Amino acid sequence: MKIEIDKKSGIPLYLQIKHQIKKLLKNGDLKPGEQLPTERDLSERLGVSRNTVSMAYKELVLEDVIRSIPGKGTFPNPKTVNYVESKVDNNLAKLEEIIDVTINEALELNFELAELKKIVNRKIEEKEKLIKNINIAFIECNYEQLYFFSKGIELGTGISIVPILIDEIHKNPNKFKEQLKSIDLVVTTFFHFDEVKKYLAEQKQKVLAIALDPLMETMVNIAHLSSKDKRIGVICITDRFAKRVFQSIRQAGIKYQSFKFSISHNQDELEKFLTGLDIVITSPGRRKEVEKIISPRIPLIEFIYVPDKGSINMLKLALLDLKNEGGKKEKR
After folding, report:
1. CB-CB contact of 55 with 103 (8 Å)
2. Which residues touch 224 (CB under 8 Å, ≥6 apart)?
């Protein structure tokens, strides 16, 4: 079992041992049934105290990563060996390491854990207060996505979202420029990023591109109900939204017999459209309308796109940076 530690890195030695054992498990270099070195053997091999190795082993036991069998030794826990972090170097692992280092240093400085907790909570509250009074313009090509982003994304108090359709910019560029005067950050999808950047060539606002994915629950429901003999219908506001839904369903490998959509608001036309359908999908803005006329025997699914977690994190960081810089509104 190959473990290397860096005594100059500033990271507690027991944490380095702990994370490297997890990495060995993840890479398959440490296999189920393979015995780990004794605390004494590993401490001598690494040139560290036995207590350092003992602390690493104890934390791994508490996390059910390894188990100690009296009289036999220490082994990977077969029940959780395949559940060890899928990405050792992911952001969560890094964050946990930072937290562990902070706790360790606080204890060395004779801080009580309860006192450290109060300090951390106070710093969090201070950061939360920074993310306030920020105006975001969200630019998209379909009303449905604008509606959901404006109403369904929780970015905290003091964050105002201004929805803007791409078509509205084409029709009235002067109005768009006027709107931008109160905007701190412009958000759009990767699909429209280059187009939006052109409109903002002479502006100072930062443009952030985010990725939108179908809500997992939505795709699971459609996949569960659909099959190669099922007819799917979409009722929405724009043909662009229908085309995006169609693309998402195709990419997911979901089988169906036919796919069609309607953007009509005429009740007679909609009732005729619903005839013969096995599954009906609506955009977020039309579900209630369709519920009034659809047969209870036909499954009705609201199709929702949401920013992925990485995009939400980038957005929150961008908001924090803006506030730290003073924000456009506060600079004027």
Report:
1. no
2. none
Percent of the chain at pLDDT above 70? 86
Which residues, in sequence order, are CB contacts of 225 under 8 Å at separation 6+?
Answer: 278, 279, 299, 301
Same fold: 134-213+309-331 with 216-303: yes
Return the number of other C-beta atoms located less than 10 Å from residue 173's C-beta: 11
DSSP 8-state class, residue 9: S
Lowest mean pLDDT: which of 144-158, 215-229, 287-301, 310-324?
144-158
CATH class of the 134-213+309-331 domain in this structure: alpha beta
User: What per-residue confidence (pLDDT) applies to 279?
Assistant: 96
Amino acid at 126: E
Alpha-carbon distance of 217 to 193, in angstroms, equals 27
CA max distance for the chain: 82
* CATH architecture of the domain covering 13-89: Orthogonal Bundle (1.10)
- Give 6's pLDDT tier (boundaries 50, 70, 90): confident
Domain regions of the chain by residue span? 13-89, 90-129, 134-213+309-331, 216-303
